[in-house]
């Protein structure tokens, strides 16, 4: 079973939230710092809101913070691009009879919009939403739940993700991990290369020769 992250793995969409975060903080005269980034990156919206409220000492409720984020993101996910080689690799996996699903921290509405607009949903049996389970991908529990839902052993699963913490969570669940480069998290490349079973800069590296010649 192959499990794919969405933001930063299948789609070039991590920048959506960086833009949202900068605008949200700027409205309040607050700087976008590395400490803030570390607190909200690669996590689910409710927990990011809890962190933001405490870290920035905001009077707004977590619900109000999330509503503003959603307003700022608007229809951005209807326009995010697929990352190079993804479509061809998914076609290759389907031709090989691979079972595939998505495991994402993305807001369900945004995930469905992006996969639908890009025509990628047809490749996947389903989507496990960290948002709905209130689990972070750094926890092995979400990966174990994804395997349980698919009816497979964790040991028979491979995870593709751009987040080092998510890869560590999947490894803790006894899954094989493929680290995927994303330019917004380039600082993690060395650690990812050291930790992951395989590390790729692009899905084009995984295409068979005949697929490379006619990739789309």
Structure write-up:
The protein is of the alpha/beta class and 216 residues long. It contains 11 helices and 6 strands. Helix 9 links the parallel strand 4 (158-161) and strand 5. It is globular and about 55 Å long.
Structure keywords:
216 residues; alpha/beta; six-stranded parallel beta sheet; globular
Rg from C-alpha positions? Answer: 17 Å
Overall pLDDT, averaged? 93
Total DSSP E strands: 6
Query: Order of helices and strands, N to C?
Result: EHHHHHEHEHHEHEHEH
- Cα separation of the termini: 24 Å
Structural class: alpha/beta
User: What is the percent of helical residues?
Assistant: 40-55%
Most strands sheet:
6 strands, parallel
The strand order across the widest sheet is: 3-2-1-4-5-6
Strand content: 5-15%
Shape summary: globular
Number of helices: 11
Poorly predicted runs are: none
Blueprint of the fold:
Elements: E1 2-4, H1 14-26, H2 34-40, H3 45-55, H4 62-73, H5 86-95, E2 100-104, H6 108-118, E3 127-129, H7 130-133, H8 140-150, E4 158-161, H9 164-172, E5 176-180, H10 189-195, E6 198-200, H11 209-213
Parallel strand pairs: 1-2, 1-4, 2-3, 4-5, 5-6
Helix pairs in contact: 1-4, 3-4, 8-9
What is shown here, in short?
The chain has 216 residues and is an alpha/beta fold.
